[in-house]
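Query structure, 409 tokens:
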């Protein structure tokens, strides 16, 4: 790959995930401070990610893969996203805000597949080359969090209370415009499917892989994947408001430790996977969810602050050991014929259905634990996903029969 193309793809990934990290992490805190939103309303806003994940395959399968170059659709969607972000920046109540965030996520979620399509098209050996491109996305997410906390200080207790987190949407709108325009200069990525080819709803949603559910082990894994997304939603939705409310300084910047951890444990995953096997790797990932939420439940911003930092740092194990291992397992069970369909089905089930339910449950649990002074009983909030994850751990440990799964890059 030419250095110029490598730079283009790296910059594309950097901006793609900078955009997501620049507003999504602090959304819950913004909604509480600026829009006086309830937990249920915050859950509705976060669930737009799930609706975007459900709708994205249709945009990719019916339009992007058949009629237009991926880089052009990427550009158009980010420009549309910039406009919607600016409208979110101006909104001052939940009723006005919600349609814009829903529209934005429907536009943004397809771009996650589009940036991969553009990158893969330029690679001779994706297994070796992709990680060096994709890591710039993680760097982008990290930088967004560091800027919010340590440069702009928008998430400090005083500034957040004064509504300064509203500026995250303006920053995201500006960067979205930059990526939107830049996308038109990316390497050409023509449609991968002929206009004449028949595209079915079942192929778009990965339903062709439903036959894999006849395999008991895959069924147990599939159900566990959906269920574990419920405690996952608690982290995305509540971690930043929780840290802000209990007085942790620079909460958004500290949460980037999770992304650093993700990179570290991604490097350790092959060793762990090969030494201990798939089942033990998945179980360690699940156990990390339980431990993380127990640490959040009993930690504080004072002497026990290390418990919160440890909980954030466990993100790498929580995510990589479960979801990345799960992708490898899905590939091994599906085989070449339905590999793409199987991954699509898992994505739909987890980021779509699982997290949709998770955000709803998280909103209800937060609302049920509001105290007289309008703060929250966070210990009870966090113990719910801890116990839930423990339940999923037990189900998987008892029902999944260990089998040999080869680690593939």
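Result returned for the query:
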């Amino acid at each position: 790959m030419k250095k110029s193309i490598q730079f283009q793809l790296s910059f594309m990934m950097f901006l793609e995930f900078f955009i997501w990290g620049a507003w999504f992490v602090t959304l819950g805190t913004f909604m509480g401070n600026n829009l006086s939103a309830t937990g249920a309303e915050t859950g509705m806003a976060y669930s737009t990610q799930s609706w975007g994940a459900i709708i994205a395959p249709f945009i990719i399968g019916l339009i992007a893969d058949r009629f237009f170059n991926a880089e052009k659709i990427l550009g158009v969607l980010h420009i549309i996203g910039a406009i919607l972000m600016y409208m979110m920046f101006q909104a001052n109540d939940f009723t006005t805000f919600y349609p814009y965030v829903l529209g934005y996520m429907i536009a943004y979620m397809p771009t996650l597949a589009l940036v991969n399509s553009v990158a893969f098209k330029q690679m001779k050996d994706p297994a070796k080359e992709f990680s060096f491109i994709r890591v710039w996305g993680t760097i982008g997410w990290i930088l967004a969090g560091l800027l919010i906390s340590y440069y702009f200080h928008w998430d400090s207790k005083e500034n957040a209370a004064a509504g300064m987190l509203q500026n995250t949407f303006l920053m995201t709108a500006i960067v979205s415009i930059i990526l939107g325009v830049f996308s038109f200069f990316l390497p050409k990525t023509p449609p991968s499917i002929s206009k004449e080819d028949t595209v079915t709803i079942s192929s778009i949603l990965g339903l062709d892989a439903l036959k894999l559910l006849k395999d008991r082990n895959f069924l147990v894994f599939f159900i566990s994947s959906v269920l574990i997304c419920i405690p996952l939603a608690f982290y995305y939705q509540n971690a930043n408001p929780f840290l802000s409310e209990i007085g942790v300084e620079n909460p958004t910047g500290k949460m980037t430790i999770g992304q650093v951890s993700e990179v570290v444990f991604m490097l350790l995953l092959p060793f762990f996977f090969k030494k201990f096997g798939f089942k033990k790797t998945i179980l360690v990932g699940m156990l990390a969810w339980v431990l993380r939420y127990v640490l959040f439940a009993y930690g504080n911003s004072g002497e026990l602050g290390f418990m919160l930092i440890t909980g954030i740092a466990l993100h790498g194990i929580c995510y990589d050991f479960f979801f990345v291992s799960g992708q490898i397992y899905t590939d091994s069970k599906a085989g070449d014929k339905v590999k793409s369909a199987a991954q699509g089905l898992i994505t739909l089930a987890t980021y779509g259905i699982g997290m949709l339910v998770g955000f709803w449950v998280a909103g209800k649990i937060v609302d049920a634990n509001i105290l007289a002074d309008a703060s929250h009983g966070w210990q009870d909030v966090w113990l719910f996903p801890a116990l839930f994850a423990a339940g999923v751990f037990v189900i998987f440990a008892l029902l999944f029969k260990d089998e040999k799964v080869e680690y593939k890059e």
